[in-house]
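Chapter review: from sequence to fold.
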Amino acid sequence: MEFPRNLFGDEYDSDADNPNSSASPSPPPSAAQPHRTSSSASSQSSSSSSGSSSASSSSKSKSSSGGESSGEEEEGNGGKVESSGGFREVYGVGGEGEEERDLFGEENEEYLRTPAMSPYPVPVLPPIRNVNNHNRGGFGRGRRQNNRGGPGILPRPGSFPYQQNFGYGSKHMNGRDERFVSDLKFSKSEETLARKIIQFQEPREFACYSRVEGGDVYFDDRSLRLFKRLISLDVGADLNQGFETFIEKKDLGSLGYGDLLACIRNKADLLQNIHFVTYRNNLNKIMATFYIRHEPWEMGVHKRKGVVYLDVHKLPERPQTELDRRRCYWGYCFENLATEDPGRDDGEGIHHIDANVEFCAVFRTKLGAHRLLMGAEMDCYDSTDDGRRFYVELKTSRELEYHTEERYEREKLLKFWIQSFLAGVPYIVVGFRDDAGRLVRTERLSTKDITHRVKKKGYWQGGVCLAFADEVLCWLYGTVKENEDYILRFGPPFARLELLQAQSCPDVISFHLEQLQNPL
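The C-alpha coordinate string follows.
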Protein backbone atom coordinates (compact mmCIF):
# COMPACT_ATOMS: atom_id res chain seq x y z
CA MET A 1 0.00 0.00 0.00
CA GLU A 2 1.45 3.31 -1.09
CA PHE A 3 0.97 6.32 1.17
CA PRO A 4 0.64 9.83 -0.23
CA ARG A 5 3.77 11.93 -0.12
CA ASN A 6 2.07 14.79 1.65
CA LEU A 7 -1.15 14.08 3.51
CA PHE A 8 -2.33 17.66 3.23
CA GLY A 9 -0.46 18.69 0.02
CA ASP A 10 -1.54 19.86 -3.39
CA GLU A 11 -1.42 16.36 -4.83
CA TYR A 12 -4.30 15.33 -2.57
CA ASP A 13 -7.42 16.56 -4.47
CA SER A 14 -10.60 15.98 -2.47
CA ASP A 15 -12.85 16.49 -5.53
CA ALA A 16 -11.11 13.74 -7.41
CA ASP A 17 -10.85 11.24 -4.60
CA ASN A 18 -14.19 11.83 -2.88
CA PRO A 19 -17.20 10.98 -5.04
CA ASN A 20 -19.57 12.44 -2.47
CA SER A 21 -18.11 15.90 -2.83
CA SER A 22 -20.72 16.75 -5.52
CA ALA A 23 -23.50 16.31 -2.97
CA SER A 24 -22.16 19.31 -1.07
CA PRO A 25 -20.46 21.59 -3.64
CA SER A 26 -18.20 24.34 -2.39
CA PRO A 27 -17.69 27.69 -4.04
CA PRO A 28 -14.30 28.19 -5.73
CA PRO A 29 -11.59 29.69 -3.58
CA SER A 30 -10.60 33.28 -3.99
CA ALA A 31 -7.65 34.24 -6.11
CA ALA A 32 -5.83 35.72 -3.16
CA GLN A 33 -5.61 32.28 -1.51
CA PRO A 34 -5.05 29.66 -4.23
CA HIS A 35 -4.25 26.84 -1.74
CA ARG A 36 -7.27 27.23 0.54
CA THR A 37 -8.94 24.17 -1.04
CA SER A 38 -6.30 22.00 0.62
CA SER A 39 -7.81 22.69 4.03
CA SER A 40 -11.29 21.92 2.76
CA ALA A 41 -10.07 18.84 1.01
CA SER A 42 -8.39 17.54 4.12
CA SER A 43 -11.58 18.10 6.02
CA GLN A 44 -13.61 16.16 3.50
CA SER A 45 -11.02 13.40 3.39
CA SER A 46 -11.13 13.02 7.16
CA SER A 47 -14.91 12.99 7.11
CA SER A 48 -15.22 10.51 4.31
CA SER A 49 -13.03 7.99 6.16
CA SER A 50 -15.53 7.93 9.04
CA GLY A 51 -18.65 7.80 6.89
CA SER A 52 -19.99 11.14 8.18
CA SER A 53 -21.49 14.08 6.27
CA SER A 54 -20.58 16.64 8.94
CA ALA A 55 -17.21 17.38 7.32
CA SER A 56 -18.85 18.64 4.11
CA SER A 57 -21.09 20.94 6.07
CA SER A 58 -18.02 22.14 7.95
CA SER A 59 -16.27 22.76 4.66
CA LYS A 60 -19.34 24.61 3.39
CA SER A 61 -19.41 26.75 6.45
CA LYS A 62 -15.73 27.57 6.13
CA SER A 63 -15.97 28.42 2.48
CA SER A 64 -18.90 30.76 3.02
CA SER A 65 -16.86 32.71 5.55
CA GLY A 66 -14.54 33.80 2.79
CA GLY A 67 -11.49 32.14 4.33
CA GLU A 68 -10.39 35.29 6.16
CA SER A 69 -10.73 33.84 9.67
CA SER A 70 -8.22 31.05 9.07
CA GLY A 71 -4.51 31.41 9.88
CA GLU A 72 -1.84 32.46 7.42
CA GLU A 73 0.20 29.98 5.49
CA GLU A 74 3.65 30.39 4.02
CA GLU A 75 4.50 29.97 0.35
CA GLY A 76 6.38 26.77 -0.37
CA ASN A 77 5.32 25.08 2.84
CA GLY A 78 4.12 22.01 1.04
CA GLY A 79 0.48 22.90 1.66
CA LYS A 80 0.85 22.46 5.43
CA VAL A 81 -1.94 24.18 7.29
CA GLU A 82 -0.84 25.85 10.58
CA SER A 83 -4.18 27.42 11.47
CA SER A 84 -6.48 26.54 14.31
CA GLY A 85 -9.33 26.52 11.85
CA GLY A 86 -7.73 23.68 9.95
CA PHE A 87 -7.37 21.71 13.22
CA ARG A 88 -11.11 22.03 13.85
CA GLU A 89 -11.93 20.95 10.31
CA VAL A 90 -9.64 17.93 10.27
CA TYR A 91 -10.84 16.55 13.67
CA GLY A 92 -14.42 17.85 13.48
CA VAL A 93 -14.21 20.05 16.57
CA GLY A 94 -16.46 23.05 17.06
CA GLY A 95 -16.93 24.40 13.56
CA GLU A 96 -19.28 27.38 13.26
CA GLY A 97 -22.67 26.58 11.82
CA GLU A 98 -22.32 22.86 12.46
CA GLU A 99 -25.61 21.14 13.25
CA GLU A 100 -25.65 19.59 16.71
CA ARG A 101 -26.59 15.96 16.89
CA ASP A 102 -28.44 14.34 19.78
CA LEU A 103 -26.44 11.23 20.67
CA PHE A 104 -29.24 9.90 22.87
CA GLY A 105 -32.14 10.63 20.51
CA GLU A 106 -34.21 8.39 18.27
CA GLU A 107 -32.00 9.09 15.24
CA ASN A 108 -29.06 7.22 16.86
CA GLU A 109 -29.87 3.61 15.98
CA GLU A 110 -26.83 2.20 17.85
CA TYR A 111 -27.99 3.81 21.07
CA LEU A 112 -31.52 2.38 20.63
CA ARG A 113 -30.09 -1.13 20.12
CA THR A 114 -28.03 -0.95 23.34
CA PRO A 115 -29.53 -3.30 26.00
CA ALA A 116 -30.40 -1.92 29.44
CA MET A 117 -28.34 -4.60 31.24
CA SER A 118 -24.77 -5.36 30.23
CA PRO A 119 -24.14 -9.00 29.25
CA TYR A 120 -20.65 -8.83 30.85
CA PRO A 121 -20.10 -9.69 34.55
CA VAL A 122 -19.13 -6.98 37.02
CA PRO A 123 -15.33 -7.06 37.58
CA VAL A 124 -14.10 -7.84 41.10
CA LEU A 125 -10.94 -6.01 42.18
CA PRO A 126 -8.32 -7.88 44.27
CA PRO A 127 -8.01 -6.85 47.95
CA ILE A 128 -5.44 -4.17 48.81
CA ARG A 129 -2.31 -5.67 50.32
CA ASN A 130 -0.33 -3.42 52.64
CA VAL A 131 3.29 -4.48 52.30
CA ASN A 132 4.45 -2.02 54.95
CA ASN A 133 2.38 -3.39 57.83
CA HIS A 134 4.87 -3.46 60.71
CA ASN A 135 2.30 -4.53 63.28
CA ARG A 136 2.61 -8.15 62.22
CA GLY A 137 5.46 -8.67 64.65
CA GLY A 138 8.38 -8.58 62.23
CA PHE A 139 10.04 -6.63 59.47
CA GLY A 140 10.93 -7.84 56.03
CA ARG A 141 9.93 -11.23 54.73
CA GLY A 142 10.18 -13.19 57.96
CA ARG A 143 7.21 -13.73 60.26
CA ARG A 144 8.80 -14.85 63.46
CA GLN A 145 11.16 -12.85 65.64
CA ASN A 146 14.44 -14.49 66.56
CA ASN A 147 16.61 -13.96 69.63
CA ARG A 148 18.85 -11.50 67.77
CA GLY A 149 16.05 -8.96 67.37
CA GLY A 150 15.53 -9.52 63.61
CA PRO A 151 12.93 -11.32 61.51
CA GLY A 152 13.01 -15.07 61.39
CA ILE A 153 13.44 -17.28 58.36
CA LEU A 154 11.37 -20.36 59.17
CA PRO A 155 7.55 -20.16 58.93
CA ARG A 156 5.49 -20.21 62.09
CA PRO A 157 4.47 -23.74 63.13
CA GLY A 158 0.78 -24.46 62.79
CA SER A 159 0.26 -25.51 66.41
CA PHE A 160 2.05 -22.42 67.79
CA PRO A 161 -0.45 -19.67 68.71
CA TYR A 162 0.03 -16.32 67.05
CA GLN A 163 1.55 -13.81 69.46
CA GLN A 164 0.66 -10.16 69.17
CA ASN A 165 2.82 -7.23 70.20
CA PHE A 166 6.06 -9.15 69.57
CA GLY A 167 4.92 -12.12 71.70
CA TYR A 168 5.00 -11.40 75.40
CA GLY A 169 3.79 -14.89 76.25
CA SER A 170 0.60 -16.81 76.94
CA LYS A 171 0.17 -15.40 80.44
CA HIS A 172 -0.37 -11.92 79.07
CA MET A 173 -3.69 -10.49 78.01
CA ASN A 174 -3.81 -8.62 74.69
CA GLY A 175 -0.02 -8.62 74.52
CA ARG A 176 0.45 -7.12 78.00
CA ASP A 177 1.26 -8.59 81.36
CA GLU A 178 -1.81 -8.87 83.58
CA ARG A 179 0.21 -7.04 86.23
CA PHE A 180 0.60 -4.09 83.85
CA VAL A 181 0.10 -0.63 85.40
CA SER A 182 1.69 1.90 83.05
CA ASP A 183 4.42 2.30 80.46
CA LEU A 184 6.74 4.94 79.11
CA LYS A 185 7.40 4.76 75.38
CA PHE A 186 10.42 6.20 73.64
CA SER A 187 8.37 8.90 71.97
CA LYS A 188 10.88 11.76 72.17
CA SER A 189 13.77 11.93 69.76
CA GLU A 190 17.39 12.57 70.60
CA GLU A 191 17.09 16.06 69.12
CA THR A 192 14.14 16.88 71.39
CA LEU A 193 15.88 15.63 74.53
CA ALA A 194 19.09 17.44 73.59
CA ARG A 195 17.25 20.77 73.75
CA LYS A 196 16.28 20.17 77.39
CA ILE A 197 18.62 21.52 80.03
CA ILE A 198 18.48 19.33 83.13
CA GLN A 199 20.17 20.52 86.29
CA PHE A 200 22.31 17.97 88.10
CA GLN A 201 23.61 18.90 91.52
CA GLU A 202 27.17 17.97 92.37
CA PRO A 203 27.06 14.81 94.55
CA ARG A 204 27.92 15.34 98.19
CA GLU A 205 29.11 12.39 100.25
CA PHE A 206 27.58 12.23 103.72
CA ALA A 207 28.12 8.58 104.80
CA CYS A 208 29.91 5.36 103.88
CA TYR A 209 30.25 1.74 104.93
CA SER A 210 32.69 -1.12 104.39
CA ARG A 211 32.17 -4.86 103.99
CA VAL A 212 35.11 -6.97 105.04
CA GLU A 213 36.03 -10.63 104.63
CA GLY A 214 33.39 -12.75 106.27
CA GLY A 215 30.56 -10.34 105.38
CA ASP A 216 30.62 -7.98 108.39
CA VAL A 217 29.66 -4.37 107.70
CA TYR A 218 31.21 -1.30 109.36
CA PHE A 219 30.19 2.29 108.89
CA ASP A 220 33.65 3.54 108.04
CA ASP A 221 36.16 3.42 105.15
CA ARG A 222 38.40 0.54 106.25
CA SER A 223 37.87 -1.30 102.96
CA LEU A 224 38.80 1.71 100.81
CA ARG A 225 42.08 1.22 98.93
CA LEU A 226 44.65 3.74 97.71
CA PHE A 227 45.36 4.07 93.98
CA LYS A 228 48.85 3.06 92.83
CA ARG A 229 50.08 5.79 90.50
CA LEU A 230 52.83 3.63 88.97
CA ILE A 231 50.41 1.11 87.53
CA SER A 232 52.03 1.51 84.11
CA LEU A 233 55.04 -0.37 85.44
CA ASP A 234 52.88 -3.50 85.71
CA VAL A 235 52.20 -3.67 81.97
CA GLY A 236 52.80 -7.25 80.89
CA ALA A 237 51.53 -8.76 84.15
CA ASP A 238 49.48 -11.94 83.97
CA LEU A 239 45.95 -11.27 85.26
CA ASN A 240 45.37 -15.01 85.72
CA GLN A 241 47.58 -15.19 88.81
CA GLY A 242 45.60 -16.07 91.93
CA PHE A 243 42.58 -17.40 90.01
CA GLU A 244 42.66 -20.71 91.88
CA THR A 245 42.06 -19.00 95.25
CA PHE A 246 39.48 -16.49 93.97
CA ILE A 247 36.34 -16.07 96.14
CA GLU A 248 33.45 -15.05 93.92
CA LYS A 249 30.91 -12.41 94.84
CA LYS A 250 27.80 -13.70 96.59
CA ASP A 251 24.35 -12.63 95.55
CA LEU A 252 22.99 -10.95 98.66
CA GLY A 253 19.68 -10.02 97.08
CA SER A 254 17.86 -7.37 99.09
CA LEU A 255 20.26 -7.77 102.02
CA GLY A 256 22.79 -5.55 100.30
CA TYR A 257 20.11 -2.87 99.94
CA GLY A 258 19.48 -3.27 103.66
CA ASP A 259 23.10 -2.30 104.38
CA LEU A 260 22.60 0.92 102.44
CA LEU A 261 19.40 1.71 104.35
CA ALA A 262 21.11 0.98 107.66
CA CYS A 263 23.84 3.45 106.74
CA ILE A 264 21.24 6.10 105.88
CA ARG A 265 19.40 5.59 109.17
CA ASN A 266 22.36 7.06 110.98
CA LYS A 267 21.51 10.29 109.15
CA ALA A 268 17.73 10.05 109.53
CA ASP A 269 17.20 13.77 109.16
CA LEU A 270 18.47 13.56 105.56
CA LEU A 271 15.37 11.61 104.51
CA GLN A 272 13.31 14.78 104.66
CA ASN A 273 12.43 16.15 101.21
CA ILE A 274 13.97 13.09 99.53
CA HIS A 275 12.22 11.53 96.53
CA PHE A 276 14.36 8.47 95.68
CA VAL A 277 16.70 6.15 97.59
CA THR A 278 18.70 3.86 95.32
CA TYR A 279 22.00 2.34 94.38
CA ARG A 280 23.91 4.01 91.57
CA ASN A 281 23.53 0.83 89.52
CA ASN A 282 19.82 1.51 89.02
CA LEU A 283 20.49 5.02 87.74
CA ASN A 284 23.19 3.65 85.44
CA LYS A 285 20.60 1.42 83.78
CA ILE A 286 18.05 4.18 83.36
CA MET A 287 20.47 6.73 81.92
CA ALA A 288 22.04 4.29 79.44
CA THR A 289 18.74 2.88 78.18
CA PHE A 290 18.11 5.63 75.63
CA TYR A 291 21.20 4.58 73.64
CA ILE A 292 21.65 0.93 74.65
CA ARG A 293 18.40 -0.78 73.69
CA HIS A 294 19.44 -4.44 73.79
CA GLU A 295 20.18 -5.07 77.48
CA PRO A 296 17.19 -6.05 79.67
CA TRP A 297 16.92 -5.03 83.32
CA GLU A 298 14.41 -4.55 86.11
CA MET A 299 14.23 -3.06 89.59
CA GLY A 300 11.80 -2.95 92.49
CA VAL A 301 9.82 0.24 93.14
CA HIS A 302 8.28 0.82 96.58
CA LYS A 303 6.77 4.13 97.73
CA ARG A 304 6.58 4.75 101.47
CA LYS A 305 5.87 8.13 103.14
CA GLY A 306 6.57 9.99 99.94
CA VAL A 307 9.95 8.29 99.34
CA VAL A 308 10.41 5.89 96.41
CA TYR A 309 12.85 3.06 97.21
CA LEU A 310 14.48 1.50 94.14
CA ASP A 311 15.64 -2.03 94.91
CA VAL A 312 18.15 -3.89 92.74
CA HIS A 313 16.83 -6.97 90.89
CA LYS A 314 19.27 -9.37 89.30
CA LEU A 315 17.96 -11.09 86.19
CA PRO A 316 18.71 -14.79 85.66
CA GLU A 317 21.83 -15.43 83.61
CA ARG A 318 23.10 -18.38 81.65
CA PRO A 319 25.57 -20.64 83.48
CA GLN A 320 29.08 -19.25 83.36
CA THR A 321 31.80 -21.16 81.60
CA GLU A 322 35.40 -21.37 82.78
CA LEU A 323 36.33 -18.58 80.37
CA ASP A 324 33.52 -16.36 81.70
CA ARG A 325 34.78 -16.80 85.26
CA ARG A 326 38.33 -16.01 84.19
CA ARG A 327 37.29 -12.84 82.39
CA CYS A 328 35.39 -11.74 85.48
CA TYR A 329 38.45 -12.45 87.60
CA TRP A 330 40.72 -10.38 85.32
CA GLY A 331 38.80 -7.29 86.38
CA TYR A 332 39.23 -8.00 90.10
CA CYS A 333 42.89 -8.84 89.56
CA PHE A 334 43.53 -5.53 87.82
CA GLU A 335 41.83 -3.68 90.70
CA ASN A 336 44.21 -5.33 93.15
CA LEU A 337 47.17 -4.70 90.88
CA ALA A 338 46.28 -0.96 90.56
CA THR A 339 45.91 -0.37 94.31
CA GLU A 340 48.33 -0.31 97.18
CA ASP A 341 48.24 -3.43 99.35
CA PRO A 342 50.17 -3.12 102.62
CA GLY A 343 50.00 -6.86 103.13
CA ARG A 344 51.70 -7.65 99.79
CA ASP A 345 55.45 -7.29 99.51
CA ASP A 346 57.13 -5.87 96.44
CA GLY A 347 57.38 -8.48 93.72
CA GLU A 348 54.87 -10.74 95.42
CA GLY A 349 52.16 -12.09 93.17
CA ILE A 350 48.41 -11.56 93.44
CA HIS A 351 46.57 -14.14 95.51
CA HIS A 352 43.53 -14.65 97.70
CA ILE A 353 41.17 -12.08 96.12
CA ASP A 354 37.75 -11.84 97.79
CA ALA A 355 35.16 -10.14 95.59
CA ASN A 356 32.85 -9.59 98.58
CA VAL A 357 35.14 -7.02 100.17
CA GLU A 358 33.89 -3.59 99.14
CA PHE A 359 33.62 0.05 100.10
CA CYS A 360 30.40 2.01 99.43
CA ALA A 361 30.01 5.79 99.63
CA VAL A 362 26.57 7.36 100.08
CA PHE A 363 25.81 10.61 98.26
CA ARG A 364 23.10 13.19 98.24
CA THR A 365 22.34 14.80 94.87
CA LYS A 366 19.53 16.24 92.75
CA LEU A 367 18.53 15.38 89.19
CA GLY A 368 16.01 17.80 87.74
CA ALA A 369 13.32 18.35 90.35
CA HIS A 370 14.01 15.18 92.35
CA ARG A 371 16.38 14.76 95.30
CA LEU A 372 18.20 11.45 95.55
CA LEU A 373 20.14 9.47 98.13
CA MET A 374 22.50 7.19 96.23
CA GLY A 375 24.91 4.48 97.30
CA ALA A 376 27.89 3.75 95.04
CA GLU A 377 30.70 1.21 95.37
CA MET A 378 34.12 2.83 94.96
CA ASP A 379 37.26 1.10 93.71
CA CYS A 380 39.96 3.32 95.17
CA TYR A 381 40.93 6.90 95.89
CA ASP A 382 43.76 9.30 95.27
CA SER A 383 44.53 12.73 96.70
CA THR A 384 45.73 16.07 95.42
CA ASP A 385 48.84 17.88 96.64
CA ASP A 386 46.76 19.81 99.15
CA GLY A 387 45.36 16.58 100.61
CA ARG A 388 41.89 16.68 99.03
CA ARG A 389 40.65 13.13 98.40
CA PHE A 390 38.91 12.04 95.20
CA TYR A 391 37.80 8.68 93.88
CA VAL A 392 39.14 6.78 90.87
CA GLU A 393 37.27 4.17 88.81
CA LEU A 394 39.19 1.10 87.63
CA LYS A 395 38.05 -0.71 84.46
CA THR A 396 39.35 -3.46 82.19
CA SER A 397 38.71 -3.94 78.49
CA ARG A 398 39.99 -6.05 75.64
CA GLU A 399 42.64 -4.33 73.55
CA LEU A 400 41.00 -2.25 70.82
CA GLU A 401 41.12 -3.06 67.13
CA TYR A 402 39.83 -1.14 64.15
CA HIS A 403 36.52 -3.03 64.15
CA THR A 404 35.97 -2.87 67.95
CA GLU A 405 36.84 0.77 68.64
CA GLU A 406 33.44 2.13 67.59
CA ARG A 407 31.49 -0.21 69.86
CA TYR A 408 33.89 0.58 72.69
CA GLU A 409 33.18 4.29 72.32
CA ARG A 410 29.45 3.85 71.78
CA GLU A 411 28.71 1.52 74.69
CA LYS A 412 31.61 1.05 77.09
CA LEU A 413 32.61 4.70 77.26
CA LEU A 414 28.95 5.59 77.76
CA LYS A 415 28.75 3.27 80.77
CA PHE A 416 32.09 4.50 82.10
CA TRP A 417 30.97 8.12 81.85
CA ILE A 418 27.54 7.58 83.47
CA GLN A 419 28.98 5.64 86.39
CA SER A 420 31.67 8.23 87.07
CA PHE A 421 29.53 11.31 86.41
CA LEU A 422 26.77 10.32 88.83
CA ALA A 423 29.21 9.99 91.75
CA GLY A 424 31.44 12.90 90.78
CA VAL A 425 34.46 10.69 90.01
CA PRO A 426 36.92 12.76 87.98
CA TYR A 427 39.20 10.00 86.56
CA ILE A 428 38.93 6.51 85.11
CA VAL A 429 41.93 4.21 84.66
CA VAL A 430 41.42 1.50 82.03
CA GLY A 431 43.62 -1.58 81.81
CA PHE A 432 43.62 -3.14 78.34
CA ARG A 433 44.36 -6.86 78.14
CA ASP A 434 44.71 -9.46 75.44
CA ASP A 435 42.69 -12.65 75.00
CA ALA A 436 45.09 -14.58 77.24
CA GLY A 437 44.55 -12.20 80.16
CA ARG A 438 47.86 -10.34 79.97
CA LEU A 439 47.89 -6.60 80.69
CA VAL A 440 48.85 -4.81 77.46
CA ARG A 441 48.60 -1.12 78.41
CA THR A 442 46.84 1.35 80.69
CA GLU A 443 45.07 4.60 79.94
CA ARG A 444 43.79 7.36 82.22
CA LEU A 445 40.58 9.04 81.09
CA SER A 446 39.14 12.28 82.33
CA THR A 447 35.40 11.99 82.89
CA LYS A 448 34.62 15.43 81.49
CA ASP A 449 36.71 14.78 78.35
CA ILE A 450 34.85 11.60 77.39
CA THR A 451 31.76 13.51 76.24
CA HIS A 452 33.87 15.76 74.00
CA ARG A 453 35.54 12.71 72.50
CA VAL A 454 32.31 11.02 71.42
CA LYS A 455 30.31 14.15 70.65
CA LYS A 456 32.52 14.89 67.64
CA LYS A 457 31.59 11.47 66.25
CA GLY A 458 27.88 11.78 67.09
CA TYR A 459 27.75 8.57 69.11
CA TRP A 460 25.88 9.84 72.19
CA GLN A 461 25.29 12.92 74.31
CA GLY A 462 25.47 13.12 78.08
CA GLY A 463 22.73 15.76 78.20
CA VAL A 464 20.35 13.38 76.43
CA CYS A 465 21.01 10.72 79.09
CA LEU A 466 20.18 13.21 81.84
CA ALA A 467 17.04 14.41 80.06
CA PHE A 468 15.82 10.85 79.57
CA ALA A 469 16.50 9.97 83.23
CA ASP A 470 14.54 13.05 84.27
CA GLU A 471 11.61 11.90 82.09
CA VAL A 472 11.68 8.46 83.74
CA LEU A 473 11.86 9.80 87.29
CA CYS A 474 9.01 12.28 86.70
CA TRP A 475 6.82 9.55 85.18
CA LEU A 476 7.74 7.07 87.90
CA TYR A 477 7.19 9.36 90.88
CA GLY A 478 3.89 10.62 89.50
CA THR A 479 2.57 7.13 88.68
CA VAL A 480 3.37 5.00 91.72
CA LYS A 481 0.98 5.19 94.67
CA GLU A 482 1.67 5.34 98.36
CA ASN A 483 2.14 1.99 100.15
CA GLU A 484 2.11 0.04 96.89
CA ASP A 485 4.82 -2.08 95.29
CA TYR A 486 5.87 -2.29 91.65
CA ILE A 487 8.50 -3.63 89.27
CA LEU A 488 10.07 -1.36 86.68
CA ARG A 489 11.10 -3.48 83.70
CA PHE A 490 12.87 -2.99 80.40
CA GLY A 491 12.94 -5.95 78.03
CA PRO A 492 12.01 -7.23 74.57
CA PRO A 493 10.97 -5.66 72.24
CA PHE A 494 12.96 -2.88 73.95
CA ALA A 495 10.50 -0.16 72.92
CA ARG A 496 9.21 1.04 76.29
CA LEU A 497 9.59 0.93 80.05
CA GLU A 498 6.89 -1.06 81.83
CA LEU A 499 5.63 -0.62 85.37
CA LEU A 500 4.13 -3.81 86.79
CA GLN A 501 2.31 -4.51 90.02
CA ALA A 502 4.36 -6.42 92.63
CA GLN A 503 3.04 -8.66 95.35
CA SER A 504 5.13 -7.62 98.34
CA CYS A 505 7.74 -5.26 99.71
CA PRO A 506 11.24 -6.50 100.69
CA ASP A 507 11.66 -7.11 104.39
CA VAL A 508 14.67 -4.80 104.60
CA ILE A 509 12.52 -1.82 103.55
CA SER A 510 9.78 -2.70 106.04
CA PHE A 511 12.40 -3.10 108.77
CA HIS A 512 13.97 0.22 107.77
CA LEU A 513 10.63 2.03 108.12
CA GLU A 514 10.00 0.43 111.50
CA GLN A 515 13.40 1.55 112.74
CA LEU A 516 12.76 5.11 111.57
CA GLN A 517 9.43 5.18 113.37
CA ASN A 518 10.68 3.44 116.55
CA PRO A 519 14.44 4.06 116.84
CA LEU A 520 16.32 1.99 119.38
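Two observations follow directly from the output. Residues 171 and 453 are 46 Å apart (CA to CA). Confidence is low (pLDDT under 50) at residues 1-97, 133-146, 148-173.
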